[in-house]
Structures
1.
Amino acid sequence: MTVVFQRTKGLTDKQFHYCPGCTHGVIHRLVGEVLEELNIVGKSIGVAPVGCSVLAYDYFNCDMHEAAHGRAPAVATGIKRTRPDNVVFTYQGDGDLASIGTAEIVHAAHRSEKFTTIFVNNAIYGMTGGQMAPTTLIGQKSTTSPEGRDLITTGMPLRVAEMMATIEGAVFVERVSVHNVPHIRKAKKAIKKAFEVQLAGIGFGIVEILSTCPTNWGMTPVDSLKWLEQNMIPYYPLGNFRTPEEVR
Ligand SMILES: Cc1ncc(C[n+]2csc(CCOP(=O)(O)OP(=O)(O)O)c2C)c(N)n1
Ligand code: SF4
């Protein structure tokens, strides 16, 4: 029988534990496909976060290392410096990277550590039950902002890609989304480019991916895709912020 479609070799056979409609699964698949297409599954080492994707170590078909909440860039730094021939990536949520782990990602970018970060921004703390994250939108309801996020008391949501773009060591910075098929395809291109930057030995690369959390947003999977498009993209504009000459 001719095989016309199969699971990417970049992922294991394990069934995802993610909620229905959660786009963590889509992003896992894109990363897995890129690892397979670049023929780097066997030499890659991923660093899993704390958050809903804590079990990423079960899903990617490469060596994986778990990190404490927000510390994946520090762990990735150690791994990449001691094993420079391996391809190293972190997979982090917005609570992990943009809150408790802000210092780690900022300094890793300033040092231009030669690893790749997949940053999943779903505008909320998913795993712990829907608390406000630094990326929660103004007016967005969460368990710790039941009336909606308030500008005066909590400030503006953090735009990570824009912040990274101010750091010269962040040599590849792009924000993408996975709310529909054309954008999923663009997201894969950005992820591939970020890994190519690492393979070329240039420096630190990050892809911010706008993602859904239907469970904690209190929406159906379809409505959450629409909500992302209508509410997140206006505040978190998509696009490339920096690409090194070598991989253009
Ligand atoms: C040091 C430490 N502080 C807090 C926590 C609790 N905690 C676990 S996951 C999480 C937030 C996860 O949110 P995010 O990174 O956005 O990922 P998501 O679950 O939305 O994918 C928090 C605060 C922890 N595990 N360790
Ligand atoms: S709680 Fe949210 S982020 Fe976590 S698996 Fe469910 S939908 Fe995804």
Note: The pocket of iron/sulfur cluster (ligand 2) is lined by residues 18-19, 22, 24, 52, 122, 126-127, 213-216 (CB under 6 Å).
2.
Amino acid sequence: MLPKKITTAKVPPLKIQGIKTKLVPFIAESVKWDGAGTYFEPFMGSGVVGFNLEPQKAVFSDTNPHIIKFYQDIQTQNITSEDVRRFLEAESRKLARTPADKNSYYYEVRDRFNESPNSLDFLFLQRSNFNGMMRFNNKGMYNVPFGRKPERFQKALITKIVNQVAWVESILKGKEWLFVHAPFTDAFAMMKKGDFVYLDPPYIGRYDGYYDAWCESSASLLAKLAQNGPAGYAFSMWYENQYRKNTHMQEWTNGVLVTTEHFYHVGAKEANRSKMTEALVVSEANFNLRNESG
Ligand SMILES: C[S@@+](CC[C@H](N)C(=O)[O-])C[C@H]1O[C@@H](n2cnc3c(N)ncnc32)[C@H](O)[C@@H]1O
């Protein structure tokens, strides 16, 4: 199933900081894998990579229980794209009737979600919050502020979100996919020869507000498990930016390293365009040589 030519990746319904949408074509071209085994994505986040690769058998996992529950709910049809439409239409009217400040209806939904989490509220918060962040405090409480747009859910946006959910519904049909709430170590315990794992852990030394903290020892353990495990792997990491190089790459010694440049904007000015080199370390047997010749 890989390499695969993907020009533009499709975006799933739940976004997250560090989403790899722009890197999906690069990842899909840099890897070869026959797809006979199981595809693992133990740091699922938005799931954008695996959803676009569409393997037949997959295990998506993450320590964030809300992401996993959301996709389990779609898989079991506990929520459907039509439920999403009805819910967002009703909730958007309530949101539009309240101000953009701390009295916004957004905060009522946030409190209700923190008291008793459910997938529809989670989607509502994710799509009306500040910048599509997915952040929790150390007690696991969702704490992203409102994006300050009471009129946020226009008809076109609701349709876009409904279509994103419908896209996930369509790829789930006929696939053997599992969504598991678990740390990456549990996913490694399930892997066998012939499987493939895509790894995109949090950055070390940066507070991202993901559901769990990430530290040096987790990063070292991951490098060890991936490089000594039975499955082929591709590991994503930032390589360097204008200020510094990522020294943690040094623990990845077995595979082939490929890099690509990625621009991101801070504000609208051209001068604020920063360059980040993104790296992918691919296990030797899974590296797609075609990528080298361009
Ligand atoms: C960089 S994000 C993944 C982004 C994803 N590749 C995307 O494109 O949307 C890292 C993810 O790892 C999860 N995570 C953090 N610590 C973890 C752990 N110990 N085991 C499994 N997942 C973890 C976070 O909840 C977050 O969803």
Note: The chain has a mean pLDDT of 92.
3.
Amino acid sequence: MSWAPAEVDLTRPNAARMYDYFLGGSHNFAADRHAADAVLAVAPHVADAARANRAFLRRAVRYALQQGIHQFLDLGSGIPTVGNVHDITRHIDINARVLYVDVEPVAVAHARVLLNNNPRVDVIQADICFPDFILKNSTTQRLIDLTRPVAVLFVSVLHFIPGDVNAIVEPFRAAMPPGSALVISHATSGTATSQTDEVQRLYQRTPTPLQLRAPAEVEALFGDFATVPADGPAAKSASNAALVPVARWRPDPEDQIERGHASASPFLTGFLAGVGMKGAAARE
Ligand SMILES: C[S@@+](CC[C@H](N)C(=O)[O-])C[C@H]1O[C@@H](n2cnc3c(N)ncnc32)[C@H](O)[C@@H]1O
């Protein structure tokens, strides 16, 4: 535990560290594991949903790279685990720039160690409820050139924030130049059940209770961005919805988790994802 920053309360479960536990990571404490096990006891597919969300993040980052985007602002980036944004970009574009932002001290401390003075990747500790602080931060300005397309990621973070989250997303949408990509995944109330109610109750014990939103509310976060057809270029058919369950956004046969579980749990069917492009038609 030498890596745990002094200000961390080891006795209170935290959503970032519970997510790390769901993904099989080791940056969590007994209180996190206890709370996460309680969630898994009522909803065993939450761990599948976490992995499917992580796989969505990877596909969305690759998609952005294909669109010619070479800089990434990952908001609520979490505790670094296999498949971070810069792990994905470095295989495709070694010069891509990545800024991680998280409010959780463990996530930030661990990211700092992992990044090991890589000049193209950095992390700041900040609350995304203060977009101006992030956009005007000197590290952001050094790394992210807002005159060129950028991918802004709100992956599995907005459902930990109460109230009007469009007020958070809107300043980022406004700051992003044409050709930029907005990537969102969000747990919704679309398929809420007694199981989801119980999970919400368990998350009340963390500093960031779960805030499920209606799918339409999440779709509205894309503003006037053009959402990318989730079925991919081949499918011109019926279900080219803006938002789909995370596992169904341009699925990749390599992702084992995509198969089998997709309709098994409200956590997979109600956990929605989409990508919107600003001011430019998405190249397929
Ligand atoms: C479930 S994890 C998601 C991590 C990563 N984005 C992913 O999808 O794999 C949610 C993260 O959001 C962070 N978070 C929650 N509220 C936040 C806020 N107001 N500002 C910044 N980060 C926040 C948590 O600390 C946690 O690391």
Note: Residues 45-277 form a domain with the Rossmann fold fold (CATH 3.40.50.150).
4.
Amino acid sequence: MSRREDVVVIGAGIIGCAVSRELARRGAAVRMFEARTVGAGATQASAGMLAPYIEGHARGTLFELGLRSLAMYDEFLRTVSEDSELMVEYRRCGTLEVATDAASAERLRGMAEGEPLLQWLDRGEARSREAALATSIEGAVLAPGHGYVAVPPLMDALAWSALRHGVQIEAAHRVTGVRVDGAGVTITTDDGTSWSAGRAVIAAGSWAGFLEVNDPAAASVRPVRGQLLRLHWRGTPLSHIVWGPDCYVVPWQDRTVLVGATVEDVGFDERTTAAGVRDLLDAACELLPETWRATFIEARVGLRPATPDGLPFIGASTLSDRVIYATGHYRNGVLLAPLTASLIADLIIDGHEDPALAALRPGR
Ligand SMILES: Cc1cc2nc3c(=O)[nH]c(=O)nc-3n(C[C@H](O)[C@H](O)[C@H](O)COP(=O)(O)OP(=O)(O)OC[C@H]3O[C@@H](n4cnc5c(N)ncnc54)[C@H](O)[C@@H]3O)c2cc1C
């Protein structure tokens, strides 16, 4: 890079924060705009699971991206904690993906076969590793490399790390428009202020389509609501993330658990519902009957940014290479944050287009 870049990043969810921090770490001057507060979008509702073998059952591009990003997580967490001087709960405790009937047992056993990083466990083996599992289960696939990160503390640490690297954070500033002009871009915010920069990165999650950039790619991001519960666990201690057909349970070290998540097509409605809470509790009780003994802490809700083919939009807009998208991470934004940050920084700082970006092109 021959000169210090100026980049504006729109949106301070996990993607905007990770991208801003990485750009600043590599020498760019970055200003990040957030309509609400840092991490207040889909990110605050996330379960923080890092589970590419479950999310990428189809073993395609998403799976490859997930594996790549997971491999970056130890170093990502180490440097974020070091920069911020904040500890973040992060455990590679493994997942147990549970088969509850013969058909799912056959499918999951087949998936684990020939895959050295997965192990099929019959009912007895699965229950010997996780005694709280229902006696009715057929078995489970163990993925020992999977894990989770506690997202609220991660966001605090990430924001501090970004600040330490010089990122300017403009909270409560909604960006209304992005205009490409001769030397770069000009953005306007809802208080009528304009800001100029060399490039703009759109990390506005589900709301990317509201920005006036006239880019058809942005408009095809849509919100998919997810509700998630936090409970105080009072049963047999859990040592893995447990994933069933209708819910998953993530055990934190303070004996709280996260139970997620609904998948609902309800537009931009960010409310929790009685039906969502009931469905999650029913599903968790079926998988782990001792859920009945848990006490209720809270229900969270977030809008996952989804694209038509389920892959994120990462790369230059169809209009201009000065406007770059980093959105549409749907169910995997936490997992994919380190990789996304690195791909965007490679592109902006080094002018290097990673081959993975070919499948992630906005407007594809
Ligand atoms: C219930 C639930 C569970 C999940 N579990 C997992 C999981 O276990 N693992 C995983 O990897 N992922 C998970 N996800 C998905 C993950 O949370 C998302 O993929 C991720 O948070 C997306 O991050 P983001 O930064 O793109 O979007 P967001 O977090 O939504 O951030 C976008 C930000 O942009 C801001 N913004 C929007 N428009 C503007 C504007 N015009 N100007 C300024 N700011 C703007 C918003 O206010 C928001 O803060 C889960 C999601 C949900 C809802």
Note: Residues 4 and 162 are 17 Å apart (CA to CA).
